[in-house]
Amino acid sequence: MESVKTIDLFKKHSYLIAIISIWLFSLLVRFWKIEQFNQLVFDEVYYAKFANNYLIGKPVFDAHPPLSQYLIAFGIWFSQFLPHSEITNNLTGSTLSPFSYRWMNAFIGSFIPILLGGIAYQITRRRSYSIIVAILMALDGFFIVESRYALKNIYLVFFGLLGHFFFLWALSPRKKYFKTAIFNQFPFWLNPLDKLALSGFFLGSCISIKWNGLGFLLSLYLIIIFVYFYQWFDQKFNLESDQQKSSFFYDHLIEIKPLYLSLFLIIIPIFTYILWWIPHLILNPEFGFIEVHQQIFNFHRSLGNKIDIHPYCSPWHSWLWMERPVAYYYKEIVENGKKIIYDVHAIGNPILWWLSTLSLIPFLLFFLYNSWQFCQNKLKATHQFWFSFYLVINYTANFLPWITIKRCTFLYHYMGAFIFSILTFAWLLDHWLKSELNFLRQLAISLIILIIISFLFWLPFYLGLPLLPYEYKIRIWSRSWI
Question: For all residues of the chain together, what is the average pLDDT?
């Protein structure tokens, strides 16, 4: 009898159990041997030092806004209350353990798979789709590497996704999903305007990591503009019935007054951005708000785009196929007469990366076809249209602006766009797994297994595990990866 109750309880809470399991897995791969390289890896030479400078009162100039350094600095301070090894170095200007300036990145990064899964659920209400998205995101190596060191990009994606999650939550059907006494103690009953305010705060925080966080905000502006334009177009030409245009975008977004949208998605992000600069300006009073931004702008404008600037510069079009991943750490040692290689490569899961890029094609074609239909006054704004519209707009807003950038760019600049390509691929997998065609079901299962194998194969690059020379070489599939 007890076993039956246990099974029933598991079925009832299977979605929650799956999400927690994915999070625990993400947490494990990010924290495992996080201190093994007792030095500053890649851009830790800047960001870990800058964070520590805030704590010891030294001047700081960074070519980006300061929020990520605040978070790393908080991690350094709070690490004194956390258990970790006695390994330390003085490379940041103070005696610190690598754990102290890395653990915050690992902790925040572990939430990205389930946060992206939450967005997938908000836009489809499909738990299976949400779980597939979270699993795929947990199996990408690039985000694991970025989460294991004191770098910026993981915070940008985290706050960008939080902003979108609360935006979508504000537009979701007014329904209480948590009815237990425990959940009643938490503010799950925020009204839509509260959620929009939080969305604006997190999007402002995203821009306070790097300016390219504007892509997450730009996509929402484009969505809102199109929805209002479509409303006007619908009223003028009477395109379709209310039943045909059932969608959380159309049904709920048009209920929110433009004044509120301007307040929550323009004023609050700007105010948040300015607010996050205050501690920096207090600690570094030599330059004011305007002067600091002039310096940052001039720095990026003066940065060239040649290989002598940095050996891992990569143009925007090369990101689609992961042509030039970045080696964050490389060391050769001799142990017991054998050559051992330690390599931390910021390389995505190649199979997942390439399949996600290919999956963009049908979504782009669907989007272009519907755009043509719109011009012919034949647009049927079904939920499927709004779903594909959301993914395509977010991908392009975070990717296409890089075409105009002339400075040296890196593969990690693609992270904001890449997460939306994962959403497109996961949607295909979810539908294939539920298809009546056995071929599609088998194909989806085979691709998932292949992605898992790919993850395990390149795991030594993600975690910096020791490799023999031949083990290293078989993982370098292109000369451009070196």
Answer: 88
